[in-house]
Write a structure and sequence with these properties.
The chain is an all-alpha fold. It contains 5 helices and no strands. The chain starts with a helix and ends with a helix.
């Protein structure tokens, strides 16, 4: 229950941020991927949907899998921010590089945690 609450809160906060502050996220969207505006908005919608689905027992297990996969996809963005930091047109205020480095291993924790919850419900 605590894990579900934590992930739901994180996903809700991220989803709202993606929808209401899209320009911040678009600035860090990898330049080699298409449709930055649409994908940032879509990711916000997906985050809100997953946060809601976590509370529906019938779909909780596949939702944990989807969260794990979404976090894995987001890892690409975090790697991009680190590797291309000097060429990104940063918003104001800019995400500091050290925070990008801290965020990267956090992705691994989130992926593993969501994966553990998925496996626990097998």
């Amino acid at each position: 229950m605590v894990t579900r609450f934590i992930f739901s809160a994180l996903l809700l906060a991220a989803g709202v941020a993606h929808l209401f502050l899209p320009q911040f996220f678009i600035a860090y969207y990898p330049s080699y991927l298409p449709w930055p505006e649409q994908m940032v908005l879509l990711s916000g919608i997906v985050e809100l949907l997953l946060a809601t689905l976590l509370w529906i027992r019938a779909v909780e297990r596949p939702t944990w899998l989807a969260i794990s996969l979404l976090m894995a996809v987001y890892t690409l963005v975090h790697v991009y921010v680190i590797t291309d930091y000097g060429t990104i047109q940063h918003p104001d205020p800019a995400l500091p590089l050290w925070l990008a480095w801290v965020r990267l291993p956090m992705q691994g924790v989130l992926i593993g945690w969501a994966w553990k919850e998925y496996r626990r419900r097998a």
